[in-house]
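Retro notes, structure queue

What went well: the backlog is down to a handful. What didn't: a couple of records were mislabeled last round, so from now on we paste the full input next to the output in the thread. Example, using ATP-grasp domain-containing protein from Photobacterium chitinilyticum:
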Amino acid sequence: MTSPKQSLPTIGMLYLDHVLRFFDKSNFKGWPEKIEQVVYHWGNDKQRFIDEVKRKKIDVLIGNVPATAYETFREIARALPKVRFIPTLDSQFSNKSKENVTHFCHKYQLPIPKTEIFYQVDEALAYINNTQYPKIVKRSYGPSNYGGYFVHKIDSAEEAVRLFSEKRYYPAYIQDFVPMKADIRVMLVGHQPVCAFWRRPPEGEWLTNTSQGGSMDYQDVPQEVLDLSVRASKAANAEYWACDIAVSTKDEYTILECATAFAAFPYIRDWIGQYLMWLLAPQYFGKPHFVHKNWEELGKIDASLLRTMRHITFGQASSSTDTGEYAPADEQYSVLKTHHMPGEEWPSEAWNFQDMHHQGQGNPYMAQEPVADCHHEDQNQAEHLLDSGIEDCSNVTVMGKTDTERQTDVACETDTEIETAPESKTESVQVYEPEQLVAFFKGVKGIGQTLAQEIVETLGVTGVLYALEHEPQQLMTFRNLKQKKLEAILRCWKENERVS
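Corresponding output:
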């Protein structure tokens, strides 16, 4: 008879120097085999790390990768095809940057504030000079945004240029300002919400972070918010997940952030451990049960005590009847298994825009270490290398007027006029559906249905349009798509645009 130990995968905990550890072995209470650990030491540590994983015969590597190491771990994952990463690098795509959150939400038609992302100075300035304010500027890429310190509300083009000059953010990531009465964080395990709470800004303020004076409470989280977070979790195929969802003054919901990397009390990390043990060895570990809206009761416990509580479990109600009729379960959502997917949904050759725009005239797909693959002591130097270039522009002209003249005009408008004014006097932009883009690619000689669908499903509508307009070489990462086909695609696209 085979012993359980022989059939269990070897688990390794992924840790990184200078990065707080999300998991501990104690989160996997009851796992009968030794749990290994592997530490990435930054710098030129990639090959040593790969060798250590192989030497320890690790089957499953569990842990989040910080943004500044994401591209390196894409390469590490490819060098370890037999090792299962949890979460997968695809599930962690949104961890890397705000722009990746935007691409993710666009692909899966998840609501987000209107967002513009610019890699070229002239394009960013044209937008800054012609848009309406207020706007929100965020640092897209880098360490976690603790306390909202890298989120800025700007009220004029002049202020936008000054901000980019001081902060040197790259790319220029600019969102419409959404008047919010609160936001809600939802944490999920196996696509089931296990914790949710409101974060409300102090009176007269707009940032909801508790470090900025915001308040928290756990009661009456809207069903629509939970449903939206479940949609996002399933789209990411994430074993564990968190969403920050804005609640506007009109009770509209939009995703602000979503990722596998989030702060969580130890008991929630225990729940994730229970789920992962069931996922990896269902023959030995039972499916965990999480009571729906448990947070409403647990949230009544003082936070100083709640953050020390461990191994919280729930009994599962069983219903019986005299007549045998169906007794519905009390679960609003079910804990679901994620599926190990081969291949990559978000290959870096197509989606690592930051590095591609900083590689100059050479081949944009040449292997190199990411610019900001560094620990916190080197972050300032890395940010300098990621300057947007906007900081070099000192004079701003807005729609033919100086910024001061524009502010005077706006001050004379009524509130209704400001709310209904068009964002800019630009030509209407053609909106495409996925089916239209598939049909376009099929119309190009040498491209069939399978390849056309693969391009659109991999890049999404936004990614396809960006590639066609700005980075056509991305399309050559698809199999059997060489230079001649790319040239044919671009000829057909120009003709298509003229007809439109």
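Agreed that this is the format going forward. Reviewer comment attached to the example: The radius of gyration is 25 Å.
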